[in-house]
Amino acid sequence: MRKFAILLSLLFLPLSGWAQLNVYFLNVGQGDATYIELPGGSNVLIDGGPSSLPVREFLMAKGVRRIDHVVLTHPHSDHYRGLKKVFQYFEVQNFYDSRLENLNAVGDNNLRELAAAQSAKVHFPEIGQNLNWDPKVTVKVLSTCSEEIKTRDSSAINNCSIVLRFYYNGTALLTTGDIEAAQENAITRMFKSGLESQILKVPHHGSSYSSSPKFLERVKPVHAIISYGVGNNYGHPHADALVRLQGAGATVYGTQDGNLMMTIPAPGRGEKTIVAPLPYTITPISAEELAEMAVPSPESQAYQQLSGVPLR
Fold this sequence. Notes:
- By secondary structure, the chain is α/β, with parallel strands linked by helices.
- About 30% of the residues lie in helices and about 25% in strands.
- The chain has twelve helices and 17 strands.
- An eight-stranded mixed sheet has the order 7-5-4-3-2-1-16-17, with helices on one face.
- It is globular and about 50 Å long.
């Protein structure tokens, strides 16, 4: 019965799900991962968290086999490490990256090697570029490092994050990676009112070095989502950032207790406001069912090792 329900939901996906934009803010602990279903049917994964398990389980429970667009905002391990298994066990069409190399890590280049081995098309977006991901959604690049940079400086790496603004049906979503106040101020000067977004993926896990007053004044967030892990060593989210977000009029949500889902409705349905982020749970799937949904094939030794299916 479960297999039939999954098949039925896939068959009717174009009728039931393509007209709205769904965003899932995933609970990956102290890290970041956001999954987006665009109204035209394609999907986006922005970062993968610090380990592969949360993102992998989420994608497989939803029956995802292919990801059209994977974005690495910047090469810190709490953003790239979980993407490694994504490239190994899902079909990735396009990979969006900066030209930044983190000299304190080797994992970022390992990830890039996996993308090349899978033959995903690699893109280095430019500031101001519109990404043609969906004919009904404007996706604009507001920040990135498109020129080659090699550094060990953590703030410089954070400020090279790929920042994207999604605009659909009068509602905007701003995803910000780990940018800090200096880069917030830079994009504020560049884009001014073009930053306004009802939904803000809060920069840098709500650190005290982000969510600056001028930035929030331009963004005007109604909903602010912070991705962080309970009891983390960084003190995220910081009280100062929370005060600034609430002072800007935003309702603040956190991923510490579970996944959050937000929906931007389709035009013409009389729905003018967005649905605030709500808890989103996934139904546990057995190892046998995961194997049947596997990409590459259920017979793959690598997949069996990943999913916990005993090797034959």
